Amino acid sequence: MQLDAKVPGGPLAEKWDRHLFELKLVNPANKRKFEIIVVGTGLGGASASATLAELGYNIKAFCIQDSPRRAHSIAAQGGINAAKNYPNDGDSIWRLFYDTIKGGDFRSREANTYRLAQVSNNIIDQCVAQGVPFARDYGGLLANRSFGGAQVSRTFYARGQTGQQLLLGAYSSLSRQIADGKVKMFPRREMVELVLINGKARGIVVRNLITGEYESHEADAIVLATGGYGNVYYLSTNATSCNVGAVFRAYKKGAFFANPCFTQIHPTCIPHSGDYQSKLTLMSESLRNDGRVWVPKDPGDKRRPNDILESDRDYYLEKKYPSFGNLVPRDVASRNAKEICDGGRGVGPTGYAVYLDFADAIKRDGKEAIEKKYGNLFDMYQNIIDANPYENPMMIYPASHYVMGGLWVDYNMMSNIPGLFVLGEANFSDHGANRLGASALMQGLADGYFVIPYTIGGYLAGTSFQEVRTDHPAFREATGEAEGRIKKLLSIKGKRTVDNIHRELGQIMWDYCGMARNREGLTKAIKLVQDLREEFWENVIVPGSDTDYNLSLQKAGRLADFLEFAELLATDALSREESCGGHFRDEYKTEEGEARRDDENFCHVAAWEYTGYGKPPKLHKEPLVFENVQLSQRSYK
Amino acid sequence: MTQGKKTINITLKVWRQKGPKHKGRLESIPVKDVSTDMSFLEMLDVVNERLTLEGKEPIEFDNDCREGICGMCGAVLNGIAHGPEKGMTLCQLHMRKFSDGDTIVVEPWRSRAFPIVKDLIVDRSALDKIIQAGGFVSMATGGAADANAIPISQEIAEKAMDAAACIGCGACVAACPNASAMLFVGAKISQLALLPQGKPEAAERALSMLGKMDDLGFGNCSNERECEAVCPKEIKITNIARFNREFIKASFG
């Protein structure tokens, strides 16, 4: 099957405007005749639901949390990029586009990434108008800070809670539409099946997490904005409920999964401390603006950090990458930390940590200035580690944080299943093989506020629909499948808990499919995952029943999907015989140890098609064509 | 640094309730060898693993981000919402704040407006309904003016941010003897009334959100300040004062 990205013609900078003009419109009076389902209420989902409802469509929105305000976008700390060039430091749409495509190691689609940069400025305007309290300078204008992978200051922020404030902005717009009756909100629902009728996405089956009942919902189009699969590593910075379920259901119904091996390991997280650990906490990357990363030069140096002389410290990022220093992109920072620790120079009780030191910044700007910028992060650190980061350097280590891979979508954000749209982290399109800091919030809101409202209209106006009701056999069949799975999980009554098996899966993925991968390890991982999956279906114990709130049962269903998905991730990593961005293969590196791409053979999107349980997935390639940027070896030296 | 191998033994007295219509009770669960580096929720995870393997039903509790921002978690520990540490959600509380031999009574939020779903889980959808009654700026997507068109003094922006930091966890309601949501409502009203973008609708918003709060069965404010004491984001009751001013302006202005 030939994947058609439907990228409009014409010069890059004019593509989106031209496309907006060429897209068919839905007459205002007709919009109210269409029903759209939006799954997920994070930045992508909430902004899409609100905006589509404002346009007049009837929306049904679903989330697994008790309130749409709690989606994991809320935890994003650092900020959101936009090409406003308020600081007058030479930023532009083109530069934001270029930084993003370079940061992604030339594995994203040029036209999508350009559009993202283009609408970035509208996002800031929109959010300010909603009452998002961004940080401001003394003159009352918006403040900016710099972030990894960029040499301009283009990141807008609200203390260390930018994601929260942006999400609450989108949630407030969503709430207004709920009050108007244009959005019907269904919280505490988990999507358990996608329903296709005549080849089009026409509905979903959800499970009511309070009552355990299955509910069928029909629509003219389905939007998935269900986030990423970083919890495949078990320990991650993701919220505990983040899962691959909804997109995996779609994959099993024929939607292609693109670049699943592009995962992001974030460099600045609080290190792991014990077996009971349930998650790893992110310390915003913005800390790298003022913190200096170092380890002792001598692996045997066990002195307390403040007792180690300047001359005995190795500021390895500053040394190796003089022009970007501590602000190299995430993948580069993470991999260097891993190399240092694997080489025996890590610090802290486990030896898997490096220092992030604020002593110089405090000396330069004063404690108060640092407290104002990062106070809440320092408090968070102190609370978890029980050490004062104003007095001692922080200890940090990389952790699974974000995934660039996701369902394949075209320029309109539509998957290869007609009527199934995918937004935000759940799709694959804009970040290539590595995402730059402060770009996830930008993408979620770009997709929801400024892309889907137009492109979905083009689909609805250009498609003929038959009436579909939930008594259609396809809904009954989907419900039966979902219910069968749930009943099966409860019936196994084995000896290992869901979390126990998930931890093992996470360890396999972290060891063989984490920051560095190789053929041998990936082959081994695939076998280990298969075996673990088999054990899961024979030996898992799921307590309770399926007729009331049962978190263990929810987690078991999600783990079942992760156990299948993990194999797909490793398969993709194995087949991509190059290093790019977050995907680093030991076999493919430069003499200096940096990622070595293979543009001749791998300058494509790997889109995988499901062929049946336990069968190898089928690979489809979308070639990436670069008409405007020169592919280069990424260098941050 | 106190990172080490310290462990303690504790006894949980935890609220168990099958569903909204069932009768609840406190169940006593001894927990041995709790690492003090664990978070409170990780301790509950360990207990739940044990209960599961013993063929019992685990303790249900809401949680998600586990870093104090999503507002999903919460329980009353020994009578204090979110536990003994100030300015902290339950998920951020670590076991090093407890001592060997402690008994910890763990209960759900209690309020007429928050029916119990199961064990420690309550239904807080009433808070969403209050926001739907006016906790927004009525502007549609597209066509917003340039973000720097209206300068906002740093002081105002900071105050608005202080109020906007609310995570909607409901601890203020759980702590209030009247089960009032005034701190929650006051914070949203303040954020939007302070900013020029929210001013045009300030009066209507105050009336409408307060009316909704009353309708949903929340009590009123009698200046107990319990809400402020337990708020994990340390939102000040000056926000309630600001709300009252908006309300008076709206009623008599």
What does this protein look like?
The complex is a heterodimer of chains A (637) and B (253). Chain A is built from 17 helices and 22 strands. Chain A has 637 residues and is an alpha+beta fold. Chain A has a domain at 265-401: Alpha-Beta Complex (Flavocytochrome C3, Chain A, domain 1). In chain A, the strands form 6 sheets. Chain A has a 5-stranded parallel beta sheet with strand order 6-2-1-10-18. In chain A, α1 crosses α5 (110-130), α3 runs parallel beside α12 (440-461) and α15 packs antiparallel against α16 (551-575). The longest helix of chain A has 25 residues, at 551-575. Chain A is globular, with a radius of gyration of 24 Å. Chain B is α+β, with helices and mostly antiparallel strands and 253 residues long. Chain B folds into 2 domains: 7-107, Ubiquitin-like (UB roll); 125-138 and 151-252, Alpha-helical ferredoxin (Fumarate Reductase Iron-sulfur Protein, Chain B, domain 2, Orthogonal Bundle). Chain B is 34% helix and 14% strand. Chain B has helices at 40-53, 125-132, 154-164, 171-175, 182-194, 202-215, 226-230, 238-252, and strands spanning 7-16, 25-35, 76-77, 80-81, 103-107, 116-118, 121-122. In chain B, the strands form 2 sheets. Chain B has a 5-stranded mixed beta sheet with strand order 2-1-5-3-4. In chain B, α2 (125-132) runs antiparallel to α6 (202-215) and α5 (182-194) crosses α8. The longest helix of chain B has 15 residues, at 238-252. Chain B is elongated. The mean pLDDT of chain B is 96. The interface between A and B is large, with 87 and 82 residues.
